[in-house]
């Protein structure tokens, strides 16, 4: 995996931002509500063919760019800024890393890199129907259900974690073998679903994946933190732009100290969240022993602070921010949902306390 410099990551951020702004519709309720229900084939084809985002973490030998979690976090910030409704986080980051690091997923990596295969990760069991795996001849069958599955309606394959004989296994299941039950959540731009398996045939990826599944949970927290940071950054940008142009009492509202303080608070949220997320991403790439701690720090912070930034945007916008037509509510909805995805702030504070106490 090549090591990128800060300058190269800034160039990556700029290139991805420019590209997404050129190919993706302007941010509005009209263009984003329901956009995550199905794949936008034209946009996904351009993202795959022109800038190669689906292959970001795939090895060069399989048609990818062989970059790391640090670079993926940069891209996740940018996809969140435009409320990108295509499966970059779920497929191109988490599922791809799961398949790549399983040790037996090489046959799927080139398809993931090209964007022709979309996969998503299933980690959370339905407590009433935990997933079980049964060996049938040379194949496996899965029964049970997984909760909180991102982009389930877009996926062609599901990477499923299963407790098996004292180990944790990862198995790959085709989408036509499962039943997808979308939730009615507050995020109107991304589908989250319950996925049910009824004697679904599956392929096992490698042997005992207990450590990898734990790592994937931490990586999910890092990825969600990166998206939360991107949402906060977009909220700050929109707030500052509005404060510079909205005139009250004969002057821009941005000239009033109270509004300046709100914008400064948003900048503090963005920069601190970016720093915490970058540290966690760097741990994932270079210091895996520190990942559990740094991921918990990042997610505990961003889950609490970044939704606040979207709330401050609505406060600065005033009545305009409460309308359906303005996209501010979409940023808030995505932020509130991400705040509890892969664990909320309380979960990660408790985890952090346990990790530090055990040292």
Automatic annotation (TrEMBL):
The keyword Methyltransferase does not apply. CDD domains: ACAD. Residues 222-354 form the Acyl-CoA dehydrogenase/oxidase C-terminal domain. It holds the Pfam family Acyl-CoA_dh_1. Its cofactor is FAD. GO terms for molecular function: acyl-CoA dehydrogenase activity; flavin adenine dinucleotide binding. Its EC number is 1.-.-.-. Keywords: FAD, Flavoprotein, Oxidoreductase. InterPro entries: Acyl-CoA_Oxase/DH_mid-dom_sf, AcylCo_DH-like_C, AcylCo_DH/oxidase_C, AcylCoA_DH/ox_N, AcylCoA_DH/ox_N_sf, AcylCoA_DH/oxidase_NM_dom_sf. Belongs to the acyl-CoA dehydrogenase family. This is Acyl-CoA/acyl-ACP dehydrogenase. The lineage of its organism: Bacteria, Bacillati, Actinomycetota, Actinomycetes, Mycobacteriales.
């Amino acid at each position: 995996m090549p090591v990128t410099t800060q300058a190269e990551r800034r160039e990556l951020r700029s290139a991805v931002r420019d590209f997404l702004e050129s190919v993706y519709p302007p941010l509005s309720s009209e263009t984003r509500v329901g956009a995550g229900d199905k794949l936008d084939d034209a946009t996904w084809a351009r993202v795959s063919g022109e800038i190669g985002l689906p292959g970001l973490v795939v090895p060069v030998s399989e048609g990818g760019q062989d970059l790391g979690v640090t670079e993926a976090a940069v891209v996740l910030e940018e996809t969140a800024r435009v409320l990108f409704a295509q499966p970059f986080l779920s497929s191109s980051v988490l599922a791809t890393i799961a398949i790549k690091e399983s040790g037996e997923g090489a046959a799927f990596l080139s398809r993931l890199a090209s964007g022709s295969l979309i996969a998503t990760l299933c980690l959370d069991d339905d407590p009433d129907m935990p997933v079980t795996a049964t060996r049938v001849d040379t194949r496996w069958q899965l029964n049970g259900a997984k909760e909180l599955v991102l982009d389930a309606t877009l996926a062609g394959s599901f990477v499923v974690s299963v407790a098996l004989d004292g180990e944790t296994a990862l198995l790959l299941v085709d989408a036509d073998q499962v039943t997808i039950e979308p939730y009615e959540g507050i995020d109107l731009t991304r589908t989250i679903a319950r996925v049910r398996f009824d004697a679904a045939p599956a392929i096992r990826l490698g042997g005992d994946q207990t450590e990898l599944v734990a790592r994937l949970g931490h990586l999910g927290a890092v990825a969600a933190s990166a998206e939360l940071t991107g949402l906060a950054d977009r909220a700050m940008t929109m707030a500052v732009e509005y404060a510079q142009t909205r005139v009250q009492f004969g002057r821009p509202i941005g000239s009033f100290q109270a509004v300046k303080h709100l914008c400064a608070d948003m900048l503090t949220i963005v920069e601190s969240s970016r720093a915490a997320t970058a540290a966690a991403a760097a741990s994932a790439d270079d210091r895996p022993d520190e990942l559990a701690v740094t991921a918990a720090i990042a997610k505990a912070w961003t889950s609490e602070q970044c939704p606040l930034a979207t709330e401050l945007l609505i406060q600065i916008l005033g009545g305009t921010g409460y309308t359906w037509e303005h996209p501010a509510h979409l940023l808030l909805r995505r932020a509130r949902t991400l705040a509890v995805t892969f664990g909320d702030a309380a979960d990660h504070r408790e985890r952090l306390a346990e990790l530090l106490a055990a040292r």
